[in-house]
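Quick look at the format.
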Amino acid sequence: MFSKPVFATAFAFLAACSARPTEENGLSHILLGRALSPDNTCGNLFNGNNKNYTCDPKSPNGGGCCSQYGYCDPDCQFQFGTCDSSHTPAGPSTLNDPRPLVGSVTYDDDIYNCVEAKVVALTYDDGPYLYTNQLLDILKSYGFHATFFMTGNNIGKGPIDETAPYPAIIKRMVAEGHQVASHTWSHYSLSEIPSDLRKQQMVKNERAIANIIGKYPTYMRPPYSQCDASSGCWADMKALGYHRVYFDLDTQDYLNPLPTTIQNSKDIVKQILGTPGANDYLSIQHDIVEQSVKNFSSYYFDLIKSKGWKGVTAGECLGDAPANWYRTPGGGSSQATNRPSSAPSTTSSSTTSTSSTTSTGMFLLRLRAFVS
């Protein structure tokens, strides 16, 4: 896991662009009895030096929201503002849907690597976003498929089922053979919030995705790579019928968003794909990082193709039938394949990545200050 202080230091100065505040749920500064910030700091970070300030809803700096880095901006710190996460998609909740555990892919262990050979599972976090359609064009030109771990409503993009062009993009993903998966509704750390909110982060995303494609995923990736057993997250994800998918090849595109730095990501994948004896990888990128889409992807795909390998979805790399990738609202899995009574684990319990195991999300739209 990553060190939160390291990333807080690295990203605190970046421009935030996430949520839109509301007064629902009673989380205003009046009801909480917190003082308005006099200096643009807020929350309870910096060893308590922020003094639990809240942000002025009328301020242009975030409009009432306190970021996880302790500054008034639109990306809300849990319990210091109600923003994107407070919105609920239209339609009945999926919380009480039946969720049979189907297929042979583990629901118990964290998944870090593939079982199929000569493949790279291409996965993308935090979208859809401005560059996702172009990424789909590139993937199509190579004949590759990918898994998109999508957030439903964060980074200021609006609810994915209500905000153009996202419904059309997501429908295109499915039509072209890609896999839609969940990265939660609003990108909270699932280990650091209570069970009821954790479940809402999943079922809100389910409802929004189902509003677009008529079904919702059985695959998820925890924001910040944070979903541990002690918090109850493992149990909650299994109860909701989710495979917890991580990665063993970190492209580090989120750390290299500039035209002058994206070469670092190219060097990483060139070195890792050249590892003797390796025959598969489960890779992570971010389709909200412009340089990752427009500059890095073709280079990366050329390397994969030059090895005689293919770019595939996470489900494909795990040997899982596409019918098992989704459930239908009110029902079970979409044309589900029955799960064996004693299903073999298809995963490793520890990552073999040669790059650092860092946060998968990092509230990456702060990178817009660099890439736009």
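Next, a different chain entirely:
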Amino acid sequence: MLLFGLGGLGSLIYVSILLVNAIAILSEDRFLARIGWSAQSFEPTFGSGGVGGSGADGTSVKAKMVNLITSVRTLMRIPLIAINTLVIAYEIVLG
């Protein structure tokens, strides 16, 4: 069973794993804060609900992206270790 050798499906799996790895290793202090994408810059304050936002719930697209990056970094840390280990083992065994 050559899962990663199926052409389009294998490439899609590799690309998705690489993108999640790229998001997971972004350093909030070293990189995201320098470009203004830190989670602290988008914390809601009292009385700011819905003013000036572009989304349906009043948050901007940039704030949603920061929230997505923070969520991926938090939730996918342990599963990514297991997924990366499986991919490395697959590549070593089946090349």
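Residues 86 and 92 are 10 Å apart (CA to CA).

See the schema section for token definitions.
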